[in-house]
Amino acid sequence: MVKLSAIKSFFISFGIFIFFMILFLFSEKRGINYLTMKVIYSFFLGLITFLIFFTGKISLYRSIFFITSAISFIIVYKFKLWGITGNFFIAPQRNIPEVPFCHIALTSNFFITFFDQLKALFLYGWDKWGFYTLGIVYIFSTLSIGQGFCSWGCFYGGIDEGISKILKKPIFKVKSISPKLRDLPLGLLIFLMLSSLVLMEPVFCIWFCPLKMTTSILNNSDTYIYKMQIIIFLLIGIIFLILLPLFIKKRTFCSFICPFGAFISIAGRINPFKIEIINDICVKCGKCIEVCPSFAINNEYKVNNYCTKCFLCIEKCKENAIKLTINKQFNVYNYYFFILSAIILGGTISSFFIPEALIIILNR
Amino acid sequence: METINGFLLGLSAGINCLIICCPYLIPFFISEHRNTNKNFGLILEYLAGRLSAYLIIGIISSILGLTLNEFHLSSRIYSFFLILSSFILFLHSFGLTFELNFLNVNAKIVTDRIPFLTGFLNGFNFCPPLIAAFSYGVSSANILKSILFFIFFFFGTALYILPFIFLNFAAKVENLRNAGRIAGIFVSIWFFIQGIYLLFKV
Question: What is the ipTM of this complex?
Fold first, then answer.
């Protein structure tokens, strides 16, 4: 496990602070307010890095950063929606410009995105073409830490993680599930990609998204369909995003619904970072299976492709039998490479929300 | 002339067929790992099913001489076939996912027999290119010409379906096989709902 001296941790975290300060030089949003918030945000990232390296408690401080990112995202998005429509949830207008650059939508609507990009290319719509290309670059950038994106970079993931941390102990203990059930989001992803292609509309956003980022595109003209959409939206939101994470202390939306997690479990195979259990050391106590929030460890003590690299199992393993490997080789530097990559990726994505959320909070 | 016209119409509008057949074919082909030859055979069966449907449509269109507007039943027929094919896909996907036997018939045996039937049912999807082909059949008012037109229309569209053979590479991954079966269940439910909706909307 990674644990460094105060001086070494300070130098690494100072590097992160400087990195983000330089990054913000290229930022669009200027002014004294933004500058102050960017300094605070860079300091926050530096502090998280310092605490991770100094204490060795990767999971705890990752979680703080991750949940902060999700809360900030909700504040920024919903307040923008409020400013435009006067409503937090159901936006009456169409084409709300503030809909975030959503990775879940990008993957589940992959064929539509691809089709639109081709269309933009052939019709010389360079502005749109650039937008879609940016989306593809964004998706590819997530591959730098593979499925680790789900625990470090995703601004939705912190919602069910945050709710799963509310209670100290689970009300219902669910240790492991059938491996077939774990493939549910991958099946859903294939279905969404195909149905979106046939209908030429974002099926996930309209029917399944529990956050209803794009409520404005719900079908208001047909009352029956509209009611169905609202029921599904509420059911998925309440069950998978609130009740199940609260009661069983697992990330159920990410584990059973999220099409992006499914996408990256396949695409992320090219990523060399893997969590592995060393059978010779493992005493099969079951602790790792119990604490894994993503049902990523099966009863044979094998870590599957759905591991989000939250490091909780590594911290809880008393035998030190779980390691982070690169191409199946273990080295302590693996942790440094991964954590720094994850903080840079997650920090860059969250930089779009956290400084702005701070401004919104202070202004109110 | 019928041959060229039919082939060109199929070729130009075949992307529609590809999009409409995708939800059936992708879950079907990734749900089990087979070799390329086996997949090729299954695709041929599927295409033979579609060809049969097209021939029936071709004959009906030339005999009846009806336009699709008058032929108001088209949507109802399609919704009926949609519901039927959703049942087949559901039985296949559900059977494979939970390793169940239906009426003492192993799901795997049923699986290997369904491409023809699914192709046949999908062939009745009155998509824009098929409506165009149907109109041609009606205007020709000649059974032979109409059949010839539909056969070549079929060849034009079939070119888009053939690449599905190579999905066996995806089926090598166990997660994707499971996912294909689950996706099949979702697709069948979706088509069932769509079929019912269409049936009562007409």
Answer: 0.85
